[in-house]
Structure formats: C-alpha cells, structure tokens
Specification:
This protein is mainly alpha-helical and 503 residues long. The protein is built from 23 helices and two strands. It has helices at residues 2-10, 13-31, 37-44, 53-78, 89-98, 102-136, 140-151, 153-157, 162-176, 202-224, 245-250, 252-267, 273-287, 299-323, 329-340, 349-352, 354-377, 379-385, 390-409, 413-430, 436-459, 465-468, 470-502, and strands spanning 179-180, 187-188. The protein has a two-stranded antiparallel sheet with strand order 1-2. α2 (13-31) packs parallel to α4 (53-78) and α6 (102-136) packs parallel to α14. The longest helix is centred in the N-terminal third of the chain and has 35 residues, at 102-136. The termini are far apart.
Length: 503
C-alpha cells in the first residue's frame, strides 16, 4: 500500500507534470496580492474531476504548497504580503531588500519554506495519530486561552510604541466584531447594510492595510515631490541562495522552534498560517539575543515566518486525514476533494485508502522540491517582472488587488472594503502606528469571541472552568508570563536607552 501510493506519484510521468504545474500555478497565485492558495484550489477543482484520486489530490496539494510559499515574493519585493501567511515576512524581508539584499532575503525565504514543509511532512508521517488525539481533546476553553496567549504578542509586535500598538490591536478586535454575532446571530455595526452581515474578509483587510495604503502613501509622496521607494529591488548579486553555511547553522534553533509552532497551530482548527507566522516571528524576537534588530532587515525574522507558515501545511493535514477535521478554508476544499474522490478521512483512512495518504506524502515532498527549484531558478525572473516604474507598477497592483478582492465572494462590497482598509492603513502609517497588531487582533478576535461564548454557554457562565481545566490554565499562565516578560523587556531596554543618552 505504501509503495502503491508513492509510485502512483513518483513513477507516473503525467502525475509528476501535473504536480509541477500545480506548484507553479500556486506560486503565481501566492505572489499576486489578493489571490491565495484557496482560490487556486477552488479554480482547479473542476480540472481534477476526471483524474484518478491519487493524481487529483496530488495536484491540489501542490497548489497548496506553492500558494503558501509564493507569498514571500511580493512580501519581500513590494512590502505586500501575497497571502496572510506572509505578513511577518514583510517586517524584515522588505528592509533587507531596501538595503540591497533582496537576493539574500529571497534565498533565505525559499530555503526555509522548503525546510518548513519537509519538517511538517516528517511530523505528518511520524506523529500524526498521537498529535491528532491530543488536538481533538481541545475544547472552547482551551481555544480561548490560546487566543489570549497569542494576543499578548501584540506587545512584542509594538515594542517601539506599546500604547499605539495596543490601540491598533484593539482596533483590529473592533473590526472583527462587525457582522453577525456567533451563537445568537445578532447583527452588530451593520448600519442596515446587508453586505456587512458577514463581516469583513481577512483578505480585504490584509491587502487593504498593506497594499492600498502603500499606494496612497506613494501617491501623496509623488504630489509633494518627495520620492518614496515603493518599487521592487531588482539589481542584486547572489551566489547560491545568498547566505553562508554559518548563517544557516545559526538559524537551526530558530527553524526547529518555528516549525514546531507552525505544526502545532496547524493542528488546531481555525488558527492557520495567518497566525502562525506572526506568532513565530514574535517568539523569535523574544528569544533573540538582539531583539532590537528585528524589523531592520535580518534573516532571523524571515526564517521564523517562512518556516512556520509552511510547517502549518503539514500540521493542517494531520487532523484533516486522521479526524476529517479541516483546519482552515484551504484544507476544507481538500476535504471536499477527498470526499468527491470517494476517500473518507478519519481514523480508518490508513486501512481503507492508504494509497491516497501515501500519495499525499509523496506529492508534498515532490511539490516542495519543485518549489525550491522553480523559485530559485526564477528568482531573478520574478524580480525582472517587477522591474516596472512605480507610476506603472502601483496602478497594476491596485487593479490586481481589486480583482482579487472581488473574486473572494464575487461582490463589489469587498472592493469598497478594500479601499476603506487602505485608508485605515494610510492613517495608521501617518500616525506611526504598527500594522501587525491590527491584523493579529482581527484574525484572533473572531476566534476568541466564538470560543468565549461557547465556553460560557457550556459552563453556564462559570468562568472558573477556564482555570480548572489543565490545558486552558496552562495557556493562561503562559499568557501572563509572556505579558510580564514582554513588559519587563521593554522597561529594561528603555532604562538602557536612558542610561546611554545620559552618558
């Protein structure tokens, strides 16, 4: 059964070609702001109807890996995350590009995206059943405590100005409450507009805050006569992947820690790579001997973000295969594709459809290898494509973002929301407010509220159950420790700055 599944992918020339096509298409969808791996899989589903189950699932898996990996291209070159999984990549990737190290930043991102996928594949093969058994025991109490722990990282992401960071994070939480309330479906902040009942989509928020705000700032700079560097960095020299063996070995602990975070959050339904890359980045900054360098253009931040978001892929597939529980919208489409092919995910999948499981393993390995080769060979090509004057590049980016926003739900409202969040991002940047806390607050806000209300309904309003359940209590203790450590770290650094200025 193992050999049958692996040979169905690796020894079938047509399947290899389709996996290659899926990887390339996924990379393209990932690097274009507003388009995602989810869209790529949704568009390719009809193509796989007449394929064998192993071949069809392999193509969709390749699209998933390519889509998550491709987001680093626009994140580094344009400061626009192609997908929510690449938000944190912007924080150090773009500063490196502006310093003339675009090639090195891309090389680091590509290699550690590959390694993150491979590590998560090993986890998928070796520890998926026990991990899935642990994850299934998580209830609303545990999920709420995890989100509280994650929200404490807002302080880490806004260490330069904690007050502004907290305000921006709260603003993200406020935007997350727009629409129908969980559990009782009460309408909130809809102002009589039916389109607001479903709230704001994460992609419109993400692309608006990061992409449209950059376009508005560039337009303002051009009118005032001040040149704002918004173009891609296209001229760079690179040997190999742009970094040394010494630099690679120095990131080993960061890579393993980030991969573990990505796998862990991937297993938990609803968290996903949009959160794992920021969480991993924040923890890497906390654990670093030089946290003040984060955000200035160092490879540590790129390693943390890209390892974690690709490791989330394997983590997400663990509960999908062993329990039939999709972790996010992308894996939900994969679940639908499996069922469509007559494969029922769950504890018996290894006995009933083992060849499909091992085909997925083989497709993940092959696709990650194709991703490494294609993105390395095409690295300078990607940059050449972006070698366009800013007055031509930015309108093109705006059009692509608008098309991507419309394609989410096929409605103009998302285009208007995109522009609205562009203005929100523009005003926040003018006020020197950090962007990541807004996204973190928005992503986690709905998860936190849903699980808080579920937990209180279950316990009939008794909040002590958050502390009497071991895992929930453990995450709340971690949240308190994280808060204390972050605040102490900021206090210590400011004391050091004052002492240096006094001398």
């Amino acid at each position: 059964m193992i050999l049958e599944g692996i040979s169905a992918v690796l020894l079938d020339p047509s399947c290899i070609i389709w996996v290659f096509i899926g990887t390339v298409v996924g990379i393209i969808f990932g690097c274009i702001p507003g388009l995602t791996a989810t869209m790529a899989i949704a568009m390719f589903l009809p193509v796989t109807y007449n394929m064998a189950s192993t071949q069809g699932i392999s193509v969709l898996t390749a699209l998933y890996i390519g889509g998550i990996s491709g987001g680093l291209i626009s994140a580094i070159l344009l400061n626009i995350p192609g997908t929510p999984a690449s938000i944190a990549t912007c924080l150090d990737g773009r500063p490196m590009a502006l310093k003339g190290e675009a090639g090195k930043a891309l090389g680091v991102g590509i290699v550690f995206s590959f390694l993150g996928t491979i590590i998560s594949l090993l986890a998928l093969i070796l520890i998926s059943p026990p991990l899935a058994e642990i994850a299934i025991k998580f209830g609303p109490f545990e999920y709420f405590s995890i989100t509280i722990f994650s929200l404490t990282l807002i302080i880490t992401l806004s260490s330069k100005n904690v007050v502004k960071g907290l305000m921006t994070g709260v603003l993200g939480l406020v935007f997350a409450t727009v629409g129908m309330a969980p559990i009782d479906s009460v309408q909130r902040y809809t102002f009589g507009n039916p389109a607001l009942k479903s709230g704001f989509d994460i992609l419109t928020v993400l692309v608006g805050v990061f992409a449209i705000s950059e376009i508005l700032l560039a337009a303002e700079a051009s009118r005032s006569g001040i040149k704002k560097d918004v173009s891609a960095i296209t001229d760079f020299k690179i040997k190999g992947f742009g970094f040394s063996i010494k630099e690679f070995t120095s990131q080993f602990v960061n890579m393993i820690r980030s991969a573990a975070i990505g796998i862990g959050l991937g297993i938990l339904p609803g968290i996903g790579s949009g959160t794992s890359n920021m969480l991993s980045y924040s923890i890497a900054q906390n654990q670093s001997k030089h946290p003040e360098k984060f955000g200035t253009g160092i490879i540590d931040g790129i390693v943390a973000s890209e390892t974690a978001n690709n490791a989330t892929i394997g983590g997400t597939i663990i509960p999908l295969l062993t329990l039939g529980i999709p972790g996010d919208s992308t894996s939900a489409l994969l679940l639908g594709a499996l069922i469509m092919k007559g494969v029922q995910p769950g504890p018996l999948i290894f006995q009933q459809n083992g060849q499909v499981v091992y085909a997925i393993y083989a497709a993940m390995a092959l696709s990650s290898l194709f991703m490494l080769i294609v993105m390395f060979i095409g690295m300078k090509g990607f940059v050449r494509i972006l070698k366009i004057p800013s007055h031509l590049l930015l309108p093109l980016v705006f059009v692509l973002c608008t098309v991507g926003a419309f394609g989410i739900n096929n409605r103009l409202f998302d285009c208007y929301a995109l522009i609205f969040f562009g203005f929100v991002g523009y005003l926040l940047q003018k006020g020197d407010c950090p962007m990541p806390p807004l996204i973190l607050g928005f992503v986690l806000g709905s998860i936190m509220e849903l699980n808080l209300r579920r937990a209180l309904s279950y316990s009939q309003g008794d909040i002590t159950e958050f502390f009497t359940r071991p895992m929930s209590c453990a995450f709340l203790v971690l949240a308190a420790l994280s808060l204390a450590i972050n605040i102490y770290g900021i206090y210590k650094s400011r004391r050091k700055e004052k002492a240096q200025s006094a001398t």
